[in-house]
Design brief:
Helix content is about 35%, strand content about 25%. By secondary structure, the protein is an alpha/beta fold. The chain has a 5-stranded mixed beta barrel. A two-stranded antiparallel ribbon has the order 1-2. The two termini are about 15 Å apart.
Length: about 260
Protein backbone atom coordinates (compact mmCIF):
# COMPACT_ATOMS: atom_id res chain seq x y z
CA UNK A 1 0.00 0.00 0.00
CA UNK A 2 1.39 3.40 -0.99
CA UNK A 3 2.03 5.93 1.75
CA UNK A 4 0.65 9.44 1.32
CA UNK A 5 1.34 12.86 2.77
CA UNK A 6 -1.54 14.83 4.25
CA UNK A 7 -2.40 17.89 2.09
CA UNK A 8 -1.28 21.06 3.80
CA UNK A 9 1.25 19.15 5.86
CA UNK A 10 3.72 18.14 3.19
CA UNK A 11 6.37 17.34 5.81
CA UNK A 12 4.11 14.82 7.58
CA UNK A 13 4.11 11.30 6.16
CA UNK A 14 0.94 9.39 6.96
CA UNK A 15 1.21 5.60 7.17
CA UNK A 16 -1.86 3.49 7.70
CA UNK A 17 -0.46 0.57 9.72
CA UNK A 18 1.37 2.76 12.30
CA UNK A 19 -1.80 4.89 12.51
CA UNK A 20 -3.94 1.84 13.33
CA UNK A 21 -1.38 0.63 15.90
CA UNK A 22 -1.36 4.08 17.51
CA UNK A 23 -5.15 4.21 17.71
CA UNK A 24 -5.19 0.80 19.40
CA UNK A 25 -2.49 1.77 21.89
CA UNK A 26 -4.17 5.07 22.72
CA UNK A 27 -7.54 3.36 23.19
CA UNK A 28 -5.92 0.66 25.35
CA UNK A 29 -4.07 3.20 27.48
CA UNK A 30 -7.11 5.40 28.04
CA UNK A 31 -9.42 2.44 28.73
CA UNK A 32 -7.13 0.79 31.26
CA UNK A 33 -6.24 4.14 32.79
CA UNK A 34 -9.92 4.86 33.36
CA UNK A 35 -10.45 1.41 34.87
CA UNK A 36 -7.54 1.86 37.29
CA UNK A 37 -8.86 5.32 38.20
CA UNK A 38 -12.29 3.81 38.89
CA UNK A 39 -10.73 1.10 41.08
CA UNK A 40 -8.82 3.72 43.04
CA UNK A 41 -11.98 5.79 43.49
CA UNK A 42 -13.89 2.76 44.75
CA UNK A 43 -11.21 1.95 47.29
CA UNK A 44 -11.09 5.58 48.35
CA UNK A 45 -14.84 5.40 49.07
CA UNK A 46 -14.22 2.29 51.17
CA UNK A 47 -11.43 4.10 53.02
CA UNK A 48 -13.69 7.08 53.71
CA UNK A 49 -16.53 4.85 54.91
CA UNK A 50 -14.14 2.83 57.08
CA UNK A 51 -12.74 5.92 58.81
CA UNK A 52 -16.18 7.40 59.34
CA UNK A 53 -17.68 4.24 60.82
CA UNK A 54 -14.69 3.41 62.99
CA UNK A 55 -15.22 6.68 64.83
CA UNK A 56 -18.89 5.88 65.42
CA UNK A 57 -19.93 4.67 68.90
CA UNK A 58 -19.45 1.00 69.68
CA UNK A 59 -22.59 -0.92 68.66
CA UNK A 60 -23.82 -3.74 70.87
CA UNK A 61 -25.25 -6.46 68.67
CA UNK A 62 -27.94 -8.72 70.11
CA UNK A 63 -28.75 -10.71 66.98
CA UNK A 64 -31.64 -8.62 65.65
CA UNK A 65 -31.86 -8.31 61.85
CA UNK A 66 -29.59 -5.55 60.59
CA UNK A 67 -28.83 -3.82 57.30
CA UNK A 68 -25.38 -5.08 56.30
CA UNK A 69 -24.73 -1.97 54.19
CA UNK A 70 -25.13 0.11 57.34
CA UNK A 71 -23.32 -2.37 59.58
CA UNK A 72 -20.21 -2.94 57.49
CA UNK A 73 -17.01 -1.53 59.07
CA UNK A 74 -18.81 -0.68 62.31
CA UNK A 75 -17.20 -1.54 65.63
CA UNK A 76 -19.34 -4.23 67.19
CA UNK A 77 -19.61 -5.70 70.69
CA UNK A 78 -20.75 -9.32 70.92
CA UNK A 79 -21.72 -11.26 74.01
CA UNK A 80 -21.80 -15.02 73.83
CA UNK A 81 -19.65 -18.13 73.67
CA UNK A 82 -17.03 -19.46 71.26
CA UNK A 83 -17.73 -22.91 69.81
CA UNK A 84 -14.23 -24.30 70.26
CA UNK A 85 -15.05 -27.57 68.53
CA UNK A 86 -15.46 -25.92 65.13
CA UNK A 87 -12.27 -24.00 64.29
CA UNK A 88 -11.29 -23.42 60.66
CA UNK A 89 -7.98 -21.95 59.48
CA UNK A 90 -7.57 -19.60 56.53
CA UNK A 91 -4.22 -20.27 54.85
CA UNK A 92 -2.02 -17.90 52.84
CA UNK A 93 -2.55 -14.95 55.19
CA UNK A 94 0.95 -13.56 55.80
CA UNK A 95 1.69 -10.99 58.48
CA UNK A 96 4.82 -8.83 58.20
CA UNK A 97 6.23 -11.26 55.64
CA UNK A 98 5.63 -14.35 57.80
CA UNK A 99 3.34 -17.10 56.49
CA UNK A 100 0.38 -17.90 58.69
CA UNK A 101 -3.32 -18.53 59.25
CA UNK A 102 -6.42 -16.67 60.36
CA UNK A 103 -8.20 -18.58 63.12
CA UNK A 104 -11.95 -18.64 62.41
CA UNK A 105 -14.49 -19.79 64.98
CA UNK A 106 -18.28 -19.57 65.34
CA UNK A 107 -19.56 -17.44 68.21
CA UNK A 108 -22.96 -18.26 69.71
CA UNK A 109 -24.80 -15.06 70.63
CA UNK A 110 -26.07 -15.08 74.20
CA UNK A 111 -29.37 -13.35 73.48
CA UNK A 112 -30.27 -14.89 70.12
CA UNK A 113 -30.54 -18.21 68.38
CA UNK A 114 -27.82 -17.37 65.90
CA UNK A 115 -24.06 -17.36 65.46
CA UNK A 116 -21.42 -14.98 64.13
CA UNK A 117 -18.32 -16.25 62.36
CA UNK A 118 -15.39 -14.54 64.07
CA UNK A 119 -11.80 -14.18 62.90
CA UNK A 120 -10.12 -14.47 66.28
CA UNK A 121 -6.61 -13.63 65.15
CA UNK A 122 -3.46 -14.75 63.34
CA UNK A 123 -1.13 -17.69 63.95
CA UNK A 124 2.26 -18.34 62.29
CA UNK A 125 2.62 -21.40 60.12
CA UNK A 126 5.17 -24.11 60.85
CA UNK A 127 7.57 -23.96 57.84
CA UNK A 128 8.29 -27.69 57.99
CA UNK A 129 4.72 -28.94 58.58
CA UNK A 130 1.79 -26.90 57.29
CA UNK A 131 -0.73 -28.90 59.33
CA UNK A 132 1.10 -28.37 62.63
CA UNK A 133 -0.58 -25.47 64.42
CA UNK A 134 0.75 -23.78 67.56
CA UNK A 135 -1.55 -24.13 70.58
CA UNK A 136 -3.82 -21.28 71.57
CA UNK A 137 -6.45 -21.10 74.30
CA UNK A 138 -10.16 -20.57 73.69
CA UNK A 139 -12.16 -18.71 76.36
CA UNK A 140 -14.73 -20.91 78.08
CA UNK A 141 -18.23 -19.80 78.91
CA UNK A 142 -19.87 -16.46 78.17
CA UNK A 143 -17.49 -13.68 77.13
CA UNK A 144 -17.78 -10.29 75.48
CA UNK A 145 -15.62 -9.41 72.50
CA UNK A 146 -15.26 -6.44 70.19
CA UNK A 147 -14.48 -6.42 66.51
CA UNK A 148 -14.94 -4.90 63.09
CA UNK A 149 -17.77 -6.02 60.79
CA UNK A 150 -16.78 -7.25 57.34
CA UNK A 151 -18.78 -8.83 54.52
CA UNK A 152 -16.25 -11.64 54.13
CA UNK A 153 -12.64 -12.56 54.78
CA UNK A 154 -11.38 -11.60 51.35
CA UNK A 155 -10.22 -13.94 48.61
CA UNK A 156 -6.79 -15.26 47.66
CA UNK A 157 -5.69 -17.31 44.68
CA UNK A 158 -6.91 -20.88 45.12
CA UNK A 159 -4.03 -23.37 44.88
CA UNK A 160 -5.35 -26.85 44.16
CA UNK A 161 -8.72 -28.26 45.14
CA UNK A 162 -10.29 -27.37 48.46
CA UNK A 163 -10.83 -30.35 50.73
CA UNK A 164 -14.01 -31.06 52.70
CA UNK A 165 -14.97 -28.37 55.18
CA UNK A 166 -14.87 -29.81 58.67
CA UNK A 167 -13.64 -28.84 62.15
CA UNK A 168 -9.92 -28.05 62.02
CA UNK A 169 -9.85 -27.76 58.23
CA UNK A 170 -7.17 -25.61 56.60
CA UNK A 171 -8.67 -23.73 53.65
CA UNK A 172 -7.59 -20.90 51.42
CA UNK A 173 -10.99 -19.26 50.98
CA UNK A 174 -14.25 -19.53 52.87
CA UNK A 175 -17.76 -18.22 52.26
CA UNK A 176 -20.28 -17.72 55.07
CA UNK A 177 -22.87 -19.86 53.32
CA UNK A 178 -20.35 -22.66 52.86
CA UNK A 179 -19.49 -22.67 56.56
CA UNK A 180 -23.17 -22.54 57.56
CA UNK A 181 -23.98 -25.52 55.34
CA UNK A 182 -21.13 -27.61 56.72
CA UNK A 183 -21.58 -26.73 60.40
CA UNK A 184 -25.40 -26.45 60.44
CA UNK A 185 -25.07 -23.25 62.46
CA UNK A 186 -27.46 -20.37 61.79
CA UNK A 187 -24.96 -17.68 60.89
CA UNK A 188 -25.39 -13.92 60.62
CA UNK A 189 -24.65 -12.63 57.07
CA UNK A 190 -21.36 -11.01 58.08
CA UNK A 191 -18.07 -11.80 59.74
CA UNK A 192 -16.25 -10.04 62.57
CA UNK A 193 -12.53 -9.41 62.86
CA UNK A 194 -11.88 -9.50 66.60
CA UNK A 195 -9.96 -6.48 67.88
CA UNK A 196 -10.29 -6.86 71.65
CA UNK A 197 -7.46 -8.49 73.58
CA UNK A 198 -8.10 -11.91 75.03
CA UNK A 199 -4.74 -13.19 76.28
CA UNK A 200 -4.83 -16.04 73.78
CA UNK A 201 -1.48 -15.43 72.00
CA UNK A 202 -3.24 -14.56 68.74
CA UNK A 203 -2.14 -11.47 66.84
CA UNK A 204 -4.87 -9.09 65.65
CA UNK A 205 -3.26 -6.80 63.09
CA UNK A 206 -5.89 -6.85 60.36
CA UNK A 207 -5.15 -5.55 56.85
CA UNK A 208 -7.06 -2.50 55.69
CA UNK A 209 -9.68 -3.36 53.05
CA UNK A 210 -8.66 -0.31 51.00
CA UNK A 211 -4.92 -0.97 50.69
CA UNK A 212 -3.57 -0.25 47.22
CA UNK A 213 -5.23 3.08 46.45
CA UNK A 214 -1.92 4.71 45.50
CA UNK A 215 -0.98 1.66 43.46
CA UNK A 216 -4.12 2.06 41.34
CA UNK A 217 -3.35 5.76 40.91
CA UNK A 218 0.16 4.87 39.77
CA UNK A 219 -1.09 2.27 37.30
CA UNK A 220 -3.60 4.77 35.89
CA UNK A 221 -0.82 7.31 35.34
CA UNK A 222 1.29 4.71 33.54
CA UNK A 223 -1.56 3.73 31.20
CA UNK A 224 -2.41 7.36 30.41
CA UNK A 225 1.30 8.02 29.81
CA UNK A 226 1.40 5.09 27.37
CA UNK A 227 -1.47 6.62 25.39
CA UNK A 228 0.24 10.02 25.24
CA UNK A 229 3.62 8.55 24.30
CA UNK A 230 2.07 6.42 21.54
CA UNK A 231 0.39 9.50 20.05
CA UNK A 232 3.55 11.64 20.31
CA UNK A 233 5.66 8.88 18.78
CA UNK A 234 3.28 8.59 15.81
CA UNK A 235 3.32 12.35 15.20
CA UNK A 236 7.08 12.78 15.61
CA UNK A 237 8.00 9.84 13.40
CA UNK A 238 5.46 10.98 10.79
CA UNK A 239 7.03 14.44 10.54
CA UNK A 240 10.53 12.98 10.62
CA UNK A 241 9.84 10.56 7.79
CA UNK A 242 7.99 13.27 5.91
CA UNK A 243 10.99 15.57 6.16
CA UNK A 244 13.31 12.80 5.05
CA UNK A 245 11.05 12.13 2.08
CA UNK A 246 10.92 15.84 1.18
CA UNK A 247 14.70 16.16 1.23
CA UNK A 248 15.22 13.19 -1.09
CA UNK A 249 15.99 13.93 -4.74
CA UNK A 250 12.96 13.72 -7.00
CA UNK A 251 14.33 10.62 -8.70
CA UNK A 252 14.54 8.76 -5.39
CA UNK A 253 11.03 9.82 -4.37
CA UNK A 254 9.55 8.60 -7.62
CA UNK A 255 11.47 5.35 -7.30
Amino acid sequence: MRNHSIPGFRSFRFRLIPFIATVLLVALGIGLGQWQTWRGDQKQLIENKLRQRQTAPLLRFSGAPADLDQLEYRRLALRGEFIGGWPVYLDNRPLNGVAGFYVLMPFKLADADSYVLVARGWLPRDPSDRSKLPPYPTPAGTVEIEGLVRRDFGHVMQLGDAGPLQPGAIVQNLAIGEFAAASKFKLQPFVVEQTSAAGDQLQRTWPSPSLGIERHRGYAFQWYALAVMAFIFFVVTGFRRGSENTNKPAAQQSG
